[in-house]
């Protein structure tokens, strides 16, 4: 997606600074303007270098998953639900979790309903995408993100963030599939089900964003133990190893 042309003043400049003009805000509605401003503020300074020195066994992260109408945000597919859980070091904080279905301009295909349990009616009665993004980013805060096969989730998040707030994701994002490829290079496959089974993690509620996030969090916890034996102690160590994998 290409950023629309704009000058250095006026509406787009105000958006870039994290706000909107009062006249526009009144047209959009205060909650909408506030949501946009909050999301834009969240995208600032999320790649602080000091976090690279954080020991992995003390790292606060948010493990998340999205359910979508398909695989291509560039061709009209959209987010249907967000699921996330906090993890501190290797401890999954299951009482600190987030889940919401959101409205979608794309119709929910029958096979997606069969896979995820999300119906067209559920999306029509759900919060807007902007509201869902606002609440999700509020839950995430400044924490590092973790996801499995994260390219899919990043693409949809970037599409949604750009469409609603003209920003892109700036949080650090760790991919458990990439970790698995580094830690277990001889595996024949790296799908979530296969990796969960290999670690003895019970599989339940697959293709529900929150349940997938919880299971991925348990997988991340297992990989933290593996990384100790490879003398990977900080987030910076991990990035260095992955860049040479």
From TrEMBL:
Q: Which keywords label this protein?
A: Exonuclease, Hydrolase, Nuclease
Q: Which Pfam families match?
A: RNase_T
SUPFAM superfamilies (UniProt xref):
Ribonuclease H-like
Record flagged with keyword Nuclease = yes
Q: Which GO terms describe its cellular component?
A: cytosol
PANTHER family assigned to the protein according to its UniProt record, in alphabetical order: DNA POLYMERASE III SUBUNIT EPSILON, PROTEIN NEN2
Annotated protein name in UniProt: 3'-5' exoribonuclease
Q: What organism is this sequence from?
A: Paenibacillus barcinonensis
């Amino acid at each position: 997606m290409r950023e629309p042309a704009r000058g250095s003043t006026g509406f787009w400049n105000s958006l870039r600074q994290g706000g909107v003009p009062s006249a526009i805000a009144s047209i959009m509605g205060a909650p909408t303007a506030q949501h946009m401003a909050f999301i834009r503020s969240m995208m600032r300074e999320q790649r602080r270098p000091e976090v690279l020195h954080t020991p992995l066994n003390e790292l606060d992260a948010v493990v998340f998953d999205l359910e979508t109408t398909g695989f291509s945000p560039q061709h009209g597919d959209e987010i249907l639900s967000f699921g996330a859980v906090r993890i501190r070091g290797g401890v999954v904080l299951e009482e600190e979790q987030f889940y919401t279905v959101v409205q979608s301009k794309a119709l929910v295909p029958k096979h997606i309903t069969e896979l995820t349990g999300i119906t067209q009616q559920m999306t029509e009665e759900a919060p807007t995408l902007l509201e869902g993004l606002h609440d999700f980013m509020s839950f995430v805060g400044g924490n590092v993100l973790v996801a499995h096969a994260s390219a899919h989730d990043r693409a949809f998040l970037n599409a949604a963030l750009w469409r609603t707030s003209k920003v892109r994701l700036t949080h650090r994002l760790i991919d458990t599939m990439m970790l698995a490829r580094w830690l277990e290079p001889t595996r024949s496959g790296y799908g979530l089900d296969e990796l969960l089974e290999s670690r003895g993690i019970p599989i339940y509620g697959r293709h529900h964003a929150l349940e997938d996030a919880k299971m991925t969090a348990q997988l991340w916890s297992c990989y933290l133990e593996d990384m100790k034996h490879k003398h990977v102690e900080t987030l910076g160590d991990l990035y260095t190893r992955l860049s040479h994998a």
